[in-house]
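Example: procollagen-proline 4-dioxygenase.
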Amino acid sequence: MRADRGSVRYVDAKPLLRGLSVLQDNVITRIEERVAAWTLLPSDNGQSLQVTQYGVEEHTAQNLSYFSNQSLSTSNEALVATLVFYLSNVTHGGQILFPNSEDKSKIWTDCTKSSEILRPIKGNAMLFFNLHLNTSPDPSSFHSRCPVQESEMWVATKFFFLRPTIAGSSSDECSDEDDNCPAWAAKGECEKNPIYMIGSDDYFGTCRKSCKVC
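Written out as structure tokens, the predicted fold is:
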């Protein structure tokens, strides 16, 4: 599905993935397995990969609404983490900046001062967390994007939420999200770290079954 929004062109691949079971596609399966191994985040809590194309933009200021994702506004779950894959090289522009970063160096906050380490390079990926471990919002995760000034940029984005998002998953299902849960519970982590292990109103516990709360 493609829609033109000014000089930026968006391509959302999610409708293609809705009718395609991950288990039936080896490429998607391998990507999801590598994402889960790298991020250590439950795959059920992530949305399908969404592909976006950005053409050359005339704006001189950075765009503060980098992820124009309608599915985020319809989700009642808090956004935990954002993963961005670069699918193409960009010769000039397109960097993601973090204006509220604790590191006040201008390479993280100014498009004109941005370092080469932030330049979009095909095959690279960027992961940042939108919440602290106690599920409170992390202001330093606020991000912006420098306009694409040459060539074009293709990215694939994956969003992770507090609770499962895949159809058929149930937040009421009694299960553990990590194979280490039984060992952690045996060491008393259910009492020492109840928010992570059991959960709260805002966070779905990782080890509810081992902590015997369901």
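The first helix runs from residue 14 to 18.
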